[in-house]
Specification:
Elements lengths: L2 H21 L3 H6 L2 H24 L6 H28 L8 H43 L12 E3 L8 E3 H11 L9 H13 L5 H5 L2 E6 L6 H9 L2 H4 L3 E6 L6 H12 L21 H4 L8 H12 L4 E8 L2 H7 L11 E6 L2 H7 L6 E4 L5 H13 L12 H11 L3 H12 L6 H9 L1 H7 L1 H15 L3 H8 L10 E2 H11 L10 H14 L4 E5 L5 E5 L2 H13 L4 E3 L9 E2 L8 E4 L12 H7 L9 H14 L10 E3 L21 E3 L8 H7 L7 E3 L20 E3 L20 E3 L3 E3 L7 E3 L19 E6 L18 E6 L7 H9 L7 E6 L22 E5 L17 E5 L7 H7 L6 E4 L8 E5 L8 E5 L6 E5 L7 E5 L7 E3 L9 E4 L6 H13 L5 E4 L2 E2 L1 H6 L1
Keywords: Coiled coil, Leucine-rich repeat, Nucleotide-binding, Plant defense, Repeat
Protein name: Rx N-terminal domain-containing protein
InterPro entries: Apaf_helical (IPR042197), Disease_R_plants (IPR044974), LRR_dom_sf (IPR032675), LRR_R13L4/SHOC2-like (IPR055414), NB-ARC (IPR002182), P-loop_NTPase (IPR027417), RX-like_CC (IPR038005), Rx_N (IPR041118)
């Protein structure tokens, strides 16, 4: 993963160049006389950045030890220059708003100018030093002739063998040879997958004309899932071997179109019997044989090669495998070489990119086949077969079963990882649990040093290397999350933006661009979606454990991120070997010692190195000893600190007051957080992202007003209910997040807002004009503030809660809502007291929010507001305790043109029957029916033809049952939840789903039902 060096270094320099551009416009910089030196520093770094991009374009083979050392020096200069600028801004922006008038006047007129002069003097000295360092780094590049090679491709080698491309790279050959020389008897699950692909290739859907047409089938999935092996097995199957005109060619990341077409033509002309008519050739000599047919091929241009290929296949049945397609443009160039001649011809493509797969399969008869990880049983069988040449763990090695499960968990069903690691373990002489545990813990480093695993590392790294340069730093950042962590979309994109990895464009702001980046990772199969909304938006994802090992090792090596308490590397200390300074720090949740249910304090009493003392003097000694454990730590340079789920305070104790350059601070789950910690945090003037989620804190100090750069403040799942008046000074704040949800299902699709968990906002909200999200505000306690909502021009998400009876508190909110009609995209209105019709203020809005995409409405209504029928952009609608009756409600909702998800929570609908009639809910993909008290029948009568997920909870058994499931052709999943599970309803649904053509899965209490599972 040498290219990671380029990406991390270039990312640092890119961020710095943007800062220097802004910095040169500052009036104090102009007055200090250092403008010229800063401009020269910027010019030098721009030249270095251009060289870095050339190295990235040259590929991994351009990297040498000298090159990597030079790039490390560039990175450190850029980091130090950024520190210099941030230190200046810190002193310039360190204001004290909570002083008396006299103290404020003295500071503004006397102290502040003197501090600014001192900061400018220090800046001038540091800039001169940085300029000198930059010149020396540039000289070293010239001295040691560190130039990117002229070629932009890895070395090419010739391969002349049936089923292999004529030209390929060492890396391609290294990956393909094991797949092209496979022992099928040793591969678990391959036979069923091969049959599935052959069935897709042969299937014409009962239409003879469709079966005769050329069909494209794309196999798509994460690197290492076995796409190559599967394609090679299909290619060598007896069914395909009967096709005379066939070829297996490599496309690869750096596609050489000429080499690919030459390889394709030579394979096609090497078939045993060429059924061609010599009279059709213009040149009589070309009919003499295959050699004459391709005479002079090395002089042909691309168009001639494509024309010849199309000519050879024009009236033939053919089978072509295009292995490792990365770019849709390559398919656009190639597809004209494969004529659609009604001869049952087939093209099989393997790719990691979902977008490429879909682009290749544009016709109705084409198909995309998505590879999935091996189930645990097949993973065990493959692993033990590789290690012990047996389908099960032998009796003499039963002690290895437990650690084998840990290794298989890390492999995550990835055949490549199972085979590679199993092969390495098979060669170990000392087969003991301790030895295997050590290997498992050090697996991340083994990927780079162990010869048996080096090939796996290269394959896993290919998806990363193919990323554009601006995405690589974002992907490296994913290593801050521990193994198995479910990465949430919203916090991730907000952190990326706060880190400065992403700059906005004329089309998208930084956070919108960040969301596109995450979608790109999903599309390229280098992260795995774990929760997907009905709209197709990926809400949560994970990084495969093995891929995370690769990226983490590179981040540590390049000082991109440092780690503390990272159990996956068998380390409770700082992993900062060789790091001069810590730039980003991820503290993975500290756990109790293995083998004992002790508190951290009890553990300290048992540990002489970390013994907790009761007296103050001994406590100071302990802190000193803790710091001596990691003497090389230099926290003042840290830009981000993440302590996700760190329920025990880490050692050494972190002093937030010293982290003055910090931009991102995520303390989610840190229950040990104290009031003093909050005071120190609120002095971090450069902070842009602050998450106190699930920390248990109950108040925010007035000092929070000093965080003038803050963009995100997350206080969800805390006890903070009232925000201080100083919060309105945060003019850059975009996301203000509070409240708490309770979740009911494994997918978190069913949830309820916890009453009385909303926040109270002070007056002056109108000054926070950058706000985009307010979630959740109590309109009763913030009544005087509600009229200011209309002064927030960028507000896109608004969640409001009313804790009092009566609807008089909603008046100002409804008036402001009418003035936000053009900006709002997500709206939640929660009237908790259901004993009255408190939401009548919303029945007639002067200007409804017509661009709403997501709407949650909780509270009694006399009828559904008519303006809801005009929400043509509405995708997600949730209703709770509305007490609506009559099927006119369903008619009204069923005509919403873009509705994808409908959630009917408790007492939202009071009718006895709920019928989804024909011509209603054309695009609905998800329906949730949650304990509707009077429901006797749920019937599908031809409506909701796109429905995929049905989630149900009942207070009683519906008298007339659930009917019409067979009229839902795309149904994939039925889920039952709640305290009352009616067995007869569940069993009836299982029987219906077994008979359903789509074989949807049935879940009960988060567990798949056996009958339905086995049938699918």
């Amino acid at each position: 993963m040498e290219a990671a060096v380029v990406s991390s270094t270039e990312g640092v320099v890119g961020i710095l160049l943007r800062k220097l551009g802004d910095f040169l416009c500052d009036k104090y910089v102009l007055l200090a006389g250092v403008c010229h030196e800063i401009q020269e520093l910027k010019d030098d770094l721009e030249s270095m950045n251009a060289c870095l991009r050339d190295l990235a374009a040259a590929g991994d083979y351009a990297q040498t030890e000298q090159t990597r050392t030079w790039m490390k020096q560039v990175r450190e200069v850029a980091y130090d220059a950024e520190d210099c600028i941030d230190n200046y801004w810190y002193h310039r922006g360190h204001h004290y708003h909570d002083e008396s008038l006299v103290a404020s006047w003295l500071r503004r007129t006397v102290i502040q100018p003197l501090e600014t002069l001192r900061a400018m003097y220090k800046l001038a000295i540091e800039v001169q030093s940085l300029k000198a360092r930059t010149l020396k780094v540039s000289e070293r590049r010239l001295r040691y002739k560190l130039e990117a090679p002229a070629t932009t491709s890895p070395p090419m080698i010739a391969v002349d063998s049936p089923g292999a491309g004529r030209y390929t790279t060492y890396d391609d050959l290294d990956r393909r040879l094991p797949a092209l020389n496979i022992d099928e008897s040793r591969l678990v699950g391959l036979r069923s997958k091969t049959k599935a692909i052959l069935k897709i290739l042969e299937d014409g859907g009962g239409d003879q004309s469709a079966a005769a047409r050329r069909k494209v089938v794309s196999i798509v999935g994460f690197g290492g899932l076995g796409k190559t092996t599967l394609a090679a097995t299909v290619y060598n199957s007896p069914t395909v071997q009967g096709i005379q005109h066939r070829a297996f060619v490599t496309v690869s990341r750096n596609c050489d179109l000429r080499a690919l077409l030459e390889s394709l033509l030579k394979q096609l002309t090497q078939t045993p019997l060429m059924m061609r008519d010599p009279r059709r050739y213009c040149d009589q000599e070309m009919a003499a044989g295959d050699h004459d047919l391709l005479r002079g091929i090395e002089t042909w241009d691309i168009s001639q090669l494509i024309t010849m290929c199309s000519f050879l296949l024009e009236d033939k049945r053919y089978f072509i495998v295009l292995y490792d397609l990365w770019n849709p443009v390559d398919w656009e160039n190639l597809k004209i070489a494969f004529p659609d001649n009604d001869k049952q011809s087939r093209v099989l493509i393997t790719t990691r990119d979902r977008h490429v797969a879909e682009n290749c399969c544009s016709d109705l008869c084409d198909r995309v086949h998505e590879m999935e990880p091996l189930p645990i049983q097949q993973s065990r069988k493959l692993f033990f077969n590789r290690v012990f040449q047996s389908d099960e763990c032998p009796l003499q090695h039963k002690s290895l079963e437990k650690i084998s499960e840990e290794i298989l968990t890390k492999c995550g069903g990835l055949p490549l990882a199972i085979v590679s690691i199993g092969g390495m373990l098979a060669r170990t002489e000392n087969r003991t649990p301790a030895e295997w545990s050590k290997i498992c813990a050090r697996l991340g480093y083994g990927l780079g040093t162990n010869a048996a695993l080096r090939g796996m590392r290269r394959i896993l790294s290919l998806g990363y290397h193919d990323l554009p340069y601006h995405l690589k730093a974002c992907f490296l950042y994913l290593s801050v999350f521990r193994e198995g962590y479910e990465i949430k979309r919203g916090p991730l994109v907000r952190r990326w933006a706060a880190e400065g990895f992403i700059s906005g464009t004329h089309e998208w702001n930084p956070e919108e661009a960040a969301e596109k980046y995450l979608d790109e990772f999903v599309k390229r199969s280098i992260v795995t979606p774990t929760r997907v909304a009905s709209s197709g938006v990926v809400r949560c994802c994970k990084v495969h454990d093995i891929m995370l090992e690769v990226v983490t090792a590179k981040c540590i090596q390049e000082n991109f991120i440092s780690f503390l308490g990272n159990s996956q590397h068998e380390c409770n200390e700082m992993m900062v070997v060789g790091h001069d300074k810590i730039r980003r720090l991820s503290i993975h949740g500290a756990q109790k010692p293995h083998g004992a249910d002790k508190t951290w304090e009890q553990y300290d009493d048992d540990n002489p190195l970390r013994r907790k003392k009761k007296k103050k003097k001994k406590l100071q000694t302990r802190n000193k000893d803790s710091q001596d454990i990691v003497p090389s730590i230099n926290f003042p340079c840290a830009r981000s600190l993440l302590m996700l789920g760190c329920i025990i305070k880490p050692l050494p104790v972190i002093n937030f007051a010293h982290l003055k350059l910090l931009r991102v601070l995520d303390l989610e789950g840190c229950r040990w957080l104290s009031n003093q910690d909050l005071h120190d945090i609120c002095r971090l003037a450069l902070l842009r992202y602050l998450s106190l989620r699930d920390t248990g804190v109950s108040w925010l100090p007035k000092l929070v007003g000093r965080l003038e750069e803050l963009m995100t403040l997350d206080i969800r799942e805390t006890h903070i209910r009232v925000l201080p008046e100083t919060i309105t000074r945060l003019g850059n704040l975009k996301h203000l997040l509070a409240g708490r949800y309770r979740y009911y299902t494994r997918t978190h699709r069913v949830k309820i807002f916890e009453p009385m968990e909303a926040m109270t906002l002070p007056c002056g909200l109108g000054r926070m004009r950058s706000l985009r999200t307010i979630s959740h505000v109590d309109v009763a306690s913030s009544f005087s503030t509600m009229h200011e909502l209309c002064e927030l021009p960028w507000l896109t998400k608004l969640c409001a809660f009313n804790s009092e009876e009566g609807g008089n508190k909603w008046g100002r909110f409804a008036a402001s809502l009418s003035k936000l009609s053009s900006s709002l995209r997500k709206l939640s209105i929660i009237h908790w007291r259901n004993g009255d019709s408190g939401l009548e203020a919303f029945m007639e809005l002067t200007s409804p929010p017509v661009f709403l995409q997501k709407f949650y409405l909780w509270g009694r209504l006399s009828a559904l507001p008519q303006w809801i029928s005009h929400l043509s952009n509405l995708v997600d609608l949730s209703l709770r305790e509305n007490f609506l009756d009559g099927e006119m409600v369903m008619e009204q909702l069923g005509r919403l043109p873009n509705l994808l998800s409908l959630k009917l929570y408790h007492q939202s609908y009071m009718g006895r029957v709920l019928h989804i009639r024909e011509n209603l809910f054309h695009r609905l993909k998800q329906l949730i029916v949650d304990n509707l008290p009077n429901l006797d029948e749920l019937g599908f009568q031809g409506g909701a033809p796109e429905l995929e997920r049905l989630t149900l909870a009942f207070l009683k058994e519906p008298v007339d049952g659930i009917v019409g499931i067979d009229k839902l052709p795309r149904l994939k999943e039925v889920e039952f939840f709640g305290h009352i599970i009616v067995d007869s309803v569940v069993e009836g649904m299982v029987a219906v789903c077994i008979a359903h053509p789509n074989r949807p899965r049935v879940y009960r209490d988060d567990r798949p039902m056996e009958d339905a599972e086995s049938s699918s």
